[in-house]
Amino acid sequence: MTEQHNNRLVKFRQDYQPPAFSISCVKLCFELEPNTTTVTSVMQMTRQHADVPLILDGQHLTLLSIALNGDPLLADAYQVDAHCLTVFSLPDQFELTIVTQLSPQSNTALEGLYLAGDTYCTQCEAEGFRRISYFLDRPDVLAEYYVTIIAPAQRYPFLLSNGNKLSEHVDSAGNRVVQWHDPFPKPSYLFALVAGDFAKLSDQYITQSGREVSLELFVEKGAANKGDFALQALKRAMNWDEQRFNLEYDLDVYMVVAVDFFNMGAMENKGLNVFNSKYVLADPSSATDRDYFNIESIIGHEYFHNWTGNRVTCRDWFQLSLKEGLTVFRDQEFSADMASATLCRIDAVKLIRTAQFAEDASPMSHPIRPEQVIEMNNFYTVTVYDKGAEVIRMLQTCLGKTDFARGLALYLQRHDGQAATCDDFLQAMQDVTGQNLTQFGLWYSQSGTPELTVSQHYDASSATLRLNLVQITPATADQSEKQPLLIPVKIELLFPNATVQQHLLLLTDAEQQFVFDNVTQQPVVVWLEHFSAPVKLINNVDDDSLLFIARHATDGVARWDAMQQFWSRKVAHCLSASQSDAVLPDAVLQLMRHWLTQPGDDLALTAELLTLPDFDTLAEQYQQIPVNQLIDILRQFKQQISVKLAQPLRQCYDVLPFQPYSYNQQASAVRRLRAVCLSYLVFSSVDATNVLTSQYQHADNMTDVIAVLTASQQLDSDIFQNLVNDFADRWQHDALVMDKCFALVASNPHPQVFAAIETMQQHPLFSWNNPNRVRALLSAFSQRNPAQFHRADGKGYQLLANSIIKLDAINAQVAARLVTPLLSWRRFEPKRQQLMRSALQQIAKIKGISNDVYEKVSRSLN
Ligand code: TRP
Ligand code: ZN
């Protein structure tokens, strides 16, 4: 049963039907031309269900010919419309030959086969293969691929596809002809083709069983020196997966191509990953520490998909979290081993608390395994990916690392070469451990953010500690009824005598009490240590205990979290009481002074301990977000800190060494702490401008430069503008660095931002056709500039709406992602609600609006 939603097809998870035909083998031949690429597809097919026609998916294709077992089909034997090709009365086993034509040049959606600059490139996940050829474009149809690519030899030195290269030659007409074979049956979404001229970096990896794998990285010509870090990261990822999960690579070659036009971060196509160049290219002068970190983690992510995603894939797209949640979890564990584990976890927690909690509170709320979808591309979300990873992490917490690894091994072995479901995954975990995971399974079907209210009661006379936990998941836009979940709650008990106990509480009921006997001293309780579950914690721990935890907990994440809680409360207090409460207590200033004067061994953690929660984190705690007040209070707090701690801030800044750049934990921690100091110094230091200018001029790396530019946004606008102008001048030829410039301009909290954004849109490197450019400017504006995006006159909303309308015709997938900040209109006061709604209504009126944008806007307005 499918449902029409205003003429749009809604698909439901419950409606899954196995495919009516299978495709054992497909031979594809591409004759590449900008506007008339010809694709010949020869498929070996077998009927699985009697009495049904064959319905192949296909869009934006011109059918040139179709033949059954070599004979052209008569016109009445098939039927074509805008979405499919139906073939009637077929035998049980047959060969179908289909020739189609398409125009990569006019493909601005960057889905299917597209031409960007001089490079042909494909993107097939989720449903892009249907823009290449008529096919059963669904993840449970696995076929063996043979691919031939033909293109002018001079212009296209590299013609790449999945698997192993079988042959290569130049024909008499000057065309290069290359043949590929991928021995592993795969779904169409993992198909890839790239044709172009590149700089090629080569390396080698020897697997734990001694097989040689050649590693090949393709980047734009002239950027060869920026590829080495990614290549080294790939080897670290290959080694890590062998060590941690005993998983080895399976082909003789692993190729990674970096392209500048790309809708997302990267894509795990079998043996031929395609990456957004932003997540490959790096050198110290142009990439920040954060860029290096992201490159390593995304290189890892795509590599880890080879097992969790490719060898075992998804039965249908509702199961997306089966591969994405699991693979994000794997990349997080990898990053935690390569970089600072505490910082990795803090970053993950921040993302859940801001974007994911917001998504669950929005009209787009969905479980990590969605129930209904109009446009699949809209479900590559923080919920499916990052909450999905949290669910996997909870499973590991509940089962223990060893059993979790055994369960994963069984799952991969049992389903190797298959398309599986989330239930298959849980079943393997259950079979290995003997634990009943029925209740845990609710995390897959239930959306929303559980609220966990905790309290503690210590009775000295009986030496007992009672911990009381209550869980409630409020109704969400998609689901009104909620059941109690299995929530692993890690706690730490900090005793006055400096001893520490750690426990894992498994909460299963709506309300539950845990009693500890023989507790002879009253401890401070650290709740939800290491963010052991993606829930909102509500507790009554007093301010002094929070500061105590921030100082003494063993878990760095818990220490950081205590500070975040402390500040959130202070902010809430200021909001509800008089403004005189904005005076910060001495205790917190003392503690911050202590960290500044004795930053300890873990400078990165110290930097985080000294950082106030950002606007989004604070906003998440309010039903109705008090925009101006939050911005004002945050600013007041920062000002006070900068005045009262002026001297230790300056001293801390001054002793941090400027050393020649190298990307490593210790050095990036120094830079992180320096950036935090700078972010306060700008509020009060008499010579803030000099400090900034000096750092800007002497920095040998992008991290220290960006820290200056970001901090200077708080100063009067001319200083920021001068620095940005200089920066833009220096980097006017480097698109990836210009993205940083676009983002800085767009996140500038001053009202000049509107004119500045307009100017930037005229920059020679800006293009509405390039997702990186558009995101740099518009996501930065709508997600990192609350003051101007949420302007009371609605100018910010208008800017975003107009951009979305423009973009929808070019690239609907990217346009739909830009809609997100408007979806939460119900969270603002009536005047802003009205303005946001009318922006959405304006978008809803687009003629020929895409499914992508339609689905989100209509869910939000209904
Ligand atoms: N599967 C990819 C990943 O997680 C992401 C992805 C999904 C994607 N759809 C895409 C990438 C479209 C680019 C374009 O790594
Ligand atoms: Zn992924």
What does this structure look like?
There is one protein chain. The chain is an alpha+beta fold. Among the domains are: 21-197, Sandwich (Immunoglobulin-like); 201-289, Zincin-like; 312-445, Neutral Protease Domain 2 (Neutral Protease, domain 2); 451-540, Immunoglobulin-like (Sandwich); 541-645, no CATH class. The strands form eight sheets. The chain has an eight-stranded mixed β-sheet, with no helix packed on it. It is globular, with a radius of gyration of 28 Å. The mean pLDDT is 97.
Short description:
This protein has 862 residues and is of the alpha+beta class. Helices cover 41% and strands 22% of the residues. The site of tryptophan (TRP) has 12 residues, from β21 and α2.
Element layout with pairings:
Layout: E1 3-5, E2 8-12, E3 21-31, E4 37-47, E5 54-57, E6 62-68, E7 71-72, E8 78-80, E9 84-87, E10 93-102, E11 112-116, E12 119-123, E13 143-152, E14 158-161, E15 164-170, E16 175-186, E17 193-196, E18 199-206, E19 212-219, H1 228-245, E20 253-259, E21 266-267, E22 272-276, H2 289-304, E23 313-314, H3 320-338, H4 341-360, E24 372-373, H5 382-399, H6 401-415, E25 419-420, H7 422-433, H8 442-445, E26 451-459, E27 464-472, E28 487-494, E29 500-507, E30 511-516, E31 524-527, E32 536-539, H9 543-552, H10 556-576, H11 586-597, H12 603-609, H13 615-619, H14 627-644, H15 646-655, H16 665-684, H17 688-698, H18 702-712, H19 717-730, H20 735-746, H21 753-761, H22 771-784, H23 786-789, H24 795-808, H25 812-823, H26 830-844, H27 851-861
Parallel strand pairs: 3-13, 19-20, 20-22, 23-25, 26-32
Antiparallel strand pairs: 1-2, 2-24, 3-4, 4-10, 5-9, 6-7, 6-10, 8-9, 11-12, 12-17, 13-16, 14-17, 15-16, 18-19, 21-22, 26-27, 27-30, 28-29, 28-31
Helix pairs in contact: 1-2, 2-3, 3-4, 3-5, 4-5, 4-10, 5-6, 6-7, 9-10, 12-16, 14-16, 15-16, 16-17, 16-18, 17-18, 20-22, 24-25, 24-26, 25-27, 26-27
The protein binds tryptophan and zinc ion (ZN).
Domain Peptidase M1 membrane alanine aminopeptidase: 229-440
Family: Belongs to the peptidase M1 family.
Domain Peptidase M1 alanyl aminopeptidase Ig-like fold: 448-538
